[in-house]
Sequence to fold (156 residues):
Amino acid sequence: MQALESWGMATRNLRTAAPAETESLGAELASLLDDGDVVLVRGELGAGKTTFVRGAARALGVDDPVTSPTFAIGNRYRGGRFTVSHLDLFRLAGLGREDPGLLADYVGPGRIAFVEWAPEGEPELDSPRLVVTLAHGGGDARIVEIDEPPGAEAER
Ligand code: ADP
Ligand code: MG
Fold:
């Protein structure tokens, strides 16, 4: 696994060979995050989205086990400096129009939010700090692309 030290470009493509490496990558990425940041995590089922979030949450001081949200759209964990939100919006479509306040508990000041299956057109999610895209690379290999949308740094 390549280190993230030499960041500075808008996009990084990395490869992990085991779940622990994907967690480590999440942990490294976590050090770039700050109050209120949203990270979109994309990729098909089993690509490693939740694994990645688990590593990031751990690095942000979350001690509780990080598992896929099942009964709610998301889980919130007490981290070191921030609340860490982990949302999985797979079952939702156009949630904003149905309940505009649905994301308010998870995204905003004092929180860092990781969002799997983010739908388009949600104002709270439309200027992510980073977009992480995971893909199967054969066996236990995963391709991890990390994009910093233009302006994401400057807007903070
Ligand atoms: P998603 O949230 O994208 O559906 P999960 O993180 O829940 O995916 O599951 C990924 C599955 O793939 C886990 O069972 C994990 O152990 C396995 N896996 C195998 N290799 C890797 C890897 N390199 N990175 C992440 N997960 C991996
Ligand atoms: Mg998941």
